[in-house]
Amino acid sequence: MTAMIRIESVSFTYPGGVRALDGVSLEVPRGCFMSLMGANGSGKSTLLKHINGLLLPEAGRVSVAGIAVGKDSFEEVNRRVGFVFQDPNDQIFAPTAREDIGYGPVNLGLPPEEVERRVEEAAAQVGIGELLDRPIHHLSYGQKKRLSIAGVLAMKPDCLVLDEPTASLDPMGEHRLMRILHGLNRNGMTVVMATHDVDLVPLYSQRVCLLRAGRVAVEGELKQVFADRELIERCRLRLPRIASLFEQLPGITELPLTVGMARRRLERLMEEDGPLLAAARTLLETEGESH
Amino acid sequence: MHIPEGMLPAGQAAAWYAPAAAFVAGGIVQVKRRLARAAEYKAMLGLMAAFVFVVSLMPVPVPGIGTVSHPCGTPLAAILLGPFAAVLVGAVALLMQALFFAHGGITTWGANILSMAVAGSFAGYGTYVLARRLGLGLGAAAGLAGFLGDLATYGVTSLQLALGLHGDQSIPVVWATAFVSFLPTQVPLAIAEGLFTAGVLVFIARQREDILKGVELAP
Amino acid sequence: MAGASRRHDDIAWGGGLLTRIDPRVKIAGTVLLLAVNLYLSSWAFSAALAVAMLLLMTLGHVPYRRQLLAVAFPAGFTIFAVASQALFSGEEVIASLGPVAIHWDGLLAGLVIALRILGGALVVVVLGVSTPMNHLALALRWFRVPLLFVELLQLTYRYLFDIYAEFTRMREAQRVRLGWSNRRAGLESSRLLGGALFVRVYDRGLRAGEAMRCRGSGPVVAGSLGRPGRIDLVSVALLAEFLLIFMNI
Predict the structure, then answer these.
(1) pTM (two decimals)
(2) For chain A, domain boundaries
(3) Consecutive sets of 10 residues in chain C, 249 residues long: mean pLDDT of each?
(4) CATH number of A3-237
(5) ipTM confidence
(6) Which of B106, B195, B207 has its CB closest to that of C195?
(7) β-sheet bridge partners, residue A64
(8) Least CA distance to A151: which residue of chain C?
(9) Where are the domains of chain C?
(10) C169 and A152: CB-CB below 8 Å?
(11) Which domains, from first to last, does chain B contain?
């Protein structure tokens, strides 16, 4: 697989003197779903802004789909990278959803029919087709979030970059959003998202990159990264709840990270009839006798 | 057109303070009357002053020539807040710009209040009200207000500069020279201000009619 | 530009030597120096003022780039002042082209104005980098500046950074959808940005007003200035000394 995004030893210091990135190198393969994780202030957002050139590195290089990110390539890069801001209110400024989704395609210089087609298509992709002519302030936060994604999808990017996409969403909204991203990814879209929601990440990510104080602490496949509990806690994160539960049970190695993985593990345990289940069974039986 | 600190001679700098102070006092009286009914209006004014400040930092492409300019924002503020409150807001923004970037000055504060806050607000507001009475649409009236408000600011600033720097020449000649020689750059800037003012107002009217009903904002 | 202001302002909050001088002393000193600067209108005084202010900022660890940046804004006007005096004033012609003539004595008069701007602007910069807004507000109240005006100054300062951050995020969001890639898109984007920002500021104004009402709508300028200390006496003495020496040269 070729790299969609290539970040080579990038460093960045904010004007106030805060060193936000310190020699970060990272590669995101084409078609990958990667989660960028880390505590508040670890440099996630700063790194994301380097992918589409909102920030330019003070040292190092970034390229997207083979194009070097720089001052002159800003437009070209942003046609390929769909950047979704954390707060949809920052991104939505037109009076209606239709006009807002059309903003990018119009700026691409597309003819009106094509703009219209793209608007309809992007709205359908995120399930807000029936809301197109509503004023923005009649939309819920979750709907605005999906609208902000439609706004970048209408530009037909090769990859999506999202900053904390699930922040402030209710559980259903979160679920719905992640289904959308997952669906896009299955159709070939490269997705990079910054998050610190450890319970959600394992469900969808293929790869995880942990940032700590502006450096990459570890990068790799999901299971591999979550195997090192100590490192995760040093990054001010934690294991998924379901993994913590299993960690407290005796005799378990290689913790399950999602509910699905946990269920399969339990089923296997039951078949194996291990010491754990034997104990549980004894407990249940004594309980039954006493009644 | 912020006249920097030290540019105007002592007597003139002091003289500009008097009318500026009168208008600012007028603003304070008007706003206080409103505050007596609703004390929380001052939070709104503080936010509006911050808005005017930020807008004056926004690069707006100038039609015709290949540069960007920064709108004054005072005609817009005057339409939305009323001219006296806009003067007060403008005076606050000007003092902060002087302290933060040496953009403008302390002894020239009076002169700058007069050209930007007073002339910009009243010319803008007057034009807007008149144009609306004459039956012009919201966008056209606001555009004209932005355009003339900007030119009025420019006219006053160039008068102040002419008075301060005319040397041995007669004042009207220097004023006319300064005014006309900068006109080719000022007219496009005024057009940009007009387009910006109209655009923002039409936007607000379409998205949030309640704001423009005016009762909450204009005194 | 607001980035500059933030750092400018950060220096004031840094609590350096200059910050510790009583703001009343700084305001009175600023007004006095600026008045003398205009009144004398002499190249020697203005030049001495500029040098003194640069020294003061160096002592106060104000970065040189910050000092220069603040002088950069008046540059256009300074050039205009020199040119206009050379053209409109004086008798001794050094060069002429048809009706337009450059005068030697006018040029000198223009340079005096240029120095006046330089010295005066630097005094204002010193006040700016050394006085946090809350100190300034309290001192202005002490000088009997109307409460409403000082309150507005405080409130504006409080919201300025939030609104600027919001403005920046929205503009970035427009840029990544190519809203500033050409002039026409830029004009359209500035309209959208101004409108959307206004609506947001307005709504926040309503919320802030409600919150204020819930807590009693009192004045937003509170606190008191400490008693002047030794550093203030030294400052006043230095100021007097400076005026005594340089007002008479």
Answers:
(1) 0.81
(2) 3-237, 239-291
(3) 52 78 94 95 94 90 76 81 84 81 88 93 91 89 92 88 90 92 86 90 85 72 79 91 85
(4) 3.40.50.300
(5) 0.89
(6) B207
(7) A5, A67
(8) C177
(9) 2-131+226-246, 146-214
(10) no
(11) 10-212 (1.10.1760.20)
